Amino acid sequence: MGDVGDKLKGYTVIREGEAEILMHSSNTVFFNKTQVNNRDMSIAVLRAFISRRKEEHASFLNKRVKLQKKVSEGKTSPVEEKTASAMEAIEGECEMPPEQTLNESDATKELSDLATGSESTQTRELKPPKVLEALAASGLRALRYAREVEGIGQIVALDNDKTSVEACKRNIQFNGSLACSKVEAHLADARIYMLTHQREFDVVDVDPYGSPSIFLDSAVQSVADGGLLMCTATDLAVLCGGNGEVCYSKYGSYPLKGKYCHEMALRILLACIESHANRYKRYIVPVLSVQMDFYIRVFVRIYTSASAMKNTPLKLSYVYQCVGCDSFHLQPVGRTVTKNNSVKYAPGFGPVVPQECMDCGKKFNMGGPIWSAPIHDQEWVSSILSGVKSMKESYPAYEKISAVLTTISEELPDVPLFVSLHNLCATLKCTSPSAVIFRSAVLNAGYRISGSHVNPLGLKSDAPMDVIWDIMRCWVKAHPVKVQPADQSGTVILSKEPKLQANFARAVASLSKAQAKKVARFLPNPERHWGPKVRAGRQITSKHASLLGLENINGSVRHEEEKQASPVTPCEPEPSLDQENDEPDKKRPKIGEEHATIPSCG
Ligand SMILES: C[S@@+](CC[C@H](N)C(=O)[O-])C[C@H]1O[C@@H](n2cnc3c(N)ncnc32)[C@H](O)[C@@H]1O
Ligand SMILES: [Zn+2]
């Protein structure tokens, strides 16, 4: 007992979910308790992945039995024969990637799926999923996966920091025999490890300090076919347009400042992962993409198919955003042309906008390319949400993650980005209609509308911008504004007569389901300073203190290091919570109109 007591001297035990870690008072290994939301959400997705994988495997076996029956009866078409032999080759663990054993042009999607299913779905026996936690720090996440996710297989936890790996090993021991049998920790550079373990992991988790960009190329190669890549980015200031060139150099896309910048950040990250995957004839299918607290996190499945990869340009778009009125328009990167039953790929027609904004006459900034296809799979979202609700007690961050998932479940899946009601009103300098009234006018005009999980004031709609402005013109007719200078965007917009007569009568569907059921959608932070932590081992400066709060840095400020660059540049959170009648925001400076240097989100 004395020995154990001595060994634990200077440590405190931190418990999250089922796992416990030892944290030394010197706190040299990274730990941020605010990431409980991130870890809970990942556990929820992992659970859904495991059950989905079982269903897919059962369906694969079923289809294969049917196909084999057809083969033995000699009733197969040429495509089915090829599929059957491809499946045999897969079972015989041939070296060739499955998609190369098929003639891609004539194999039907379903049959090709049968032949190219994930390695684990290809064999009779479904092995428990192997997980890589590429940037593990204390190992808390890996330990929670091991202890809380039923049916999980081996978990490899990596870190390139010796102290972190030692702490991780100690924590594995501390969590008992189950943890010891499932989790192993290694000192390694994650990039090299992933590159030398190609397609080996059913799940790869990348949770870095700041940007994941340097890990993406090897991460997409390390995921098995049909496997899941989970990836965090905390560099929101970069992704949200604080420094467009840096974003371009890291992610290959230009961000735009605006109320939708957090959703744009998610879409930039997805486009970037897709571009790395494409290099290896792979492509992504997003399952869930979330912005929470001070970071974004995406969950995507990765598949291999040279033919499916040709669809990538159809899933990407540039974004034209007006510098005057913030109207935005998507410019697809590619398109398809169908001729005599054959599909050909071509560059997108453009530009989709004239030189001057059709609404206010100002110029456009062009951002992107972004991922403009759906960022969530709504079937997955429902099953993750119902899984979370059925195991409420096992999620320490239940309230937060169920609120986020509920809002996501109501997002229009096929509408990228959104308008902000306050922003529209700020442009026109008018009072704001309530969200319910505005939603009603959009619905009454025959369009769809939903909220957005990234912004309580964001409204997603398939209504074109001219319809949105017509609705606002009609609103202003009933709620007049003071005369403004002639060159202002709002004045130009209001000088045109609306083509559409907006109907503001309350529409039945104008309340979101969550609002109707009075389910919380946006929760305040549980504590003050619920934000990012500095890199472990970094000297704390008073700059960090002002960013993170004294509590989060144990009060240890080193004043002489004031000039050192800050590793964290958190993006300001949106201020209001489900407020529908607030005054419009002050307009932010526009890129291209003024020299905006603040790394804010909008
Ligand atoms: C944000 S922390 C990870 C937190 C952890 N995932 C959790 O949930 O608590 C990032 C970790 O990545 C490690 N790291 C940074 N670069 C790395 C690399 N190239 N290879 C492996 N680990 C790396 C750092 O030492 C640090 O411990
Ligand atoms: Zn405009």
UniProtKB/TrEMBL annotation:
It catalyses: guanosine(26) in tRNA + 2 S-adenosyl-L-methionine = N(2)-dimethylguanosine(26) in tRNA + 2 S-adenosyl-L-homocysteine + 2 H(+). One of its GO terms (biological process) is tRNA N2-guanine methylation. Signal peptide: none annotated. Keywords: Metal-binding, Methyltransferase, RNA-binding, S-adenosyl-L-methionine, Transferase, tRNA processing, tRNA-binding, Zinc. The keyword Ubl conjugation does not apply. GO terms for cellular component: nucleus. It comes from the Eukaryota. Coiled coil: none annotated. Residues 584-596 have a biased composition (Basic and acidic residues). GO terms for molecular function: metal ion binding; tRNA (guanine(26)-N2)-dimethyltransferase activity; tRNA binding. Its EC number is 2.1.1.216. Residues 559-602 are annotated as: Disordered. Dimethylates a single guanine residue at position 26 of most tRNAs using S-adenosyl-L-methionine as donor of the methyl groups. PANTHER family: N 2 ,N 2 -DIMETHYLGUANOSINE TRNA METHYLTRANSFERASE, TRNA (GUANINE(26)-N(2))-DIMETHYLTRANSFERASE. NCBIfam families: TRM1. Belongs to the class I-like SAM-binding methyltransferase superfamily. Trm1 family. This is tRNA (guanine(26)-N(2))-dimethyltransferase. It comes from Colocasia esculenta.
